[in-house]
Design a protein that fits this description.
- The protein is built from 12 helices and 10 strands.
- The two termini are 32 Å apart.
- Helix 5 runs parallel beside helix 8 and helix 7 runs antiparallel to helix 8.
- The N terminus is likely disordered.
- It has one domain: 3-Layer(aba) Sandwich (Rossmann fold), CATH 3.40.50.300.
- Strand 4 and strand 5 form a beta hairpin.
- The protein is globular.
- With 281 residues, it is of the alpha/beta class.
- The strands form 2 sheets. Strands 6-7-8-3-9-10 form a 6-stranded mixed beta sheet, sandwiched between helices. The protein has a 4-stranded antiparallel beta sheet with strand order 2-1-4-5, with helices on one face.
- The longest helix is centred in the last third of the chain and has 14 residues.
- It binds adenosine-5'-triphosphate and magnesium ion.
Length: 281
């Protein structure tokens, strides 16, 4: 997704930008996200079929603004497919997906969805290994490309402050001038999260973000996510239950493409249907 994020269509390259429809103009204006009902993401009756197999089956889900939500479920439950639908990678056969009250995500392209304020982190970090940590964050920044060109990449102080702030948040402030390729696996993951943050997303989607991390890196990542909640909304897909417990938010359990249970981790872990799908594997 970073590749998409970093290569946002330029105005002149994308006819849709110039279509002049009030609606599209509204959609693409950052800051116009309507959170009046405190809901940032709303999925209703989403069905996705692959050759007749229902990867998602009438899935409905609501994420509140500022929430930190964990999505769990056995392999093949449809967790990644759900993220594909939100980011526009997969179009649902049926159902609606709303970002805030007014933005219908099923009508936007992947770059438009990223631009509207949804950032996604895939499992494999897609950082620029031959650039420094600082340069990676600089490259990820949301800037008007025309202004960028005219400034010849001279960084204004506000941008510099934002990079410094992000470096601290992702605990890489001591590594700013290091080549990204030399970072540990966990640090690379943090750098990618930092790159997403430079785009100022309202909603962050993270698919198995701590896979392959050491226990200590996992715990640091949990602290980072907790600190991001409120200012951002986060949807975290994870199999690591210790991590889900640390995050402490509401947990949604998916099974066979539908919502099986929702509640605190303790509540869903005590749910007989949840126990059955996990033990029945
Ligand atoms: N492009 C596709 N074509 C055909 N089937 C697919 C496709 N993408 C996903 N599926 C199937 O849809 C189901 C849900 O897959 P998905 O990747 O969403 O599960 P998941 O919950 O993310 O699982 P995991 O925990 O293993 O990552 C699986 O049975 C998968 O094989
Ligand atoms: Mg998956």
């Amino acid at each position: 997704m970073n590749a998409v994020n970093l290569l946002l269509p330029e105005k002149e390259d994308n006819p849709e930008w110039d279509s002049g429809t009030a609606e599209l103009g509204h959609i693409l204006q950052p800051g116009h996200l309507d959170l009046s009902h405190k809901v940032i993401l709303y999925l209703e009756d989403i069905t996705v079929s692959f050759d007749g197999f229902r990867a998602l089956n009438k899935l409905s889900l609501t994420i509140d603004a500022g929430e930190l939500r964990c999505i769990i479920g056995p392999n093949g439950a449809g967790k990644t497919t759900m993220m594909d639908v939100i980011t526009g990678k997969t179009r649902p056969d049926e159902g609606t997906v709303f970002f805030g009250q007014t933005i219908d995500l099923t009508r936007l392209s992947e770059p438009e969805i990223a631009h509207a304020g949804i950032g996604r982190k895939f499992q494999k970090p897609t950082i620029f290994e031959n650039h420094t940590v600082f340069e990676n964050l600089e490259l990820a920044m949301k800037t008007d490309k025309r202004v960028w060109r005219s400034l010849f990449a001279v960084l204004d102080s506000a941008a510099g402050d934002r990079i410094a702030e992000t470096l601290q948040l992702i605990r890489l402030d001591g590594q700013a001038n290091r080549l990204a390729g030399l970072l540990s696996h966990g640090q690379k993951q943090w750098l990618e999260i930092g790159m997403l943050l430079m785009q100022e997303p309202k909603l962050l989607l993270l698919d198995e973000p701590v896979a392959g991390m050491t226990d200590e890196e996992t715990e640091r990542t949990g602290e980072l996510f907790i600190s991001l909640a409120g200012r951002h909304s986060l949807v975290v897909v994870e199999h690591d239950m210790a991590f889900v417990k640390q995050l402490g938010g509401k947990v949604t359990v998916l099974h066979e493409g539908s919502l099986l249970a929702e509640g605190t981790l303790e509540e869903v872990q005590a749910d007989a249907r949840v126990i059955e799908v996990y033990l029945g594997r």
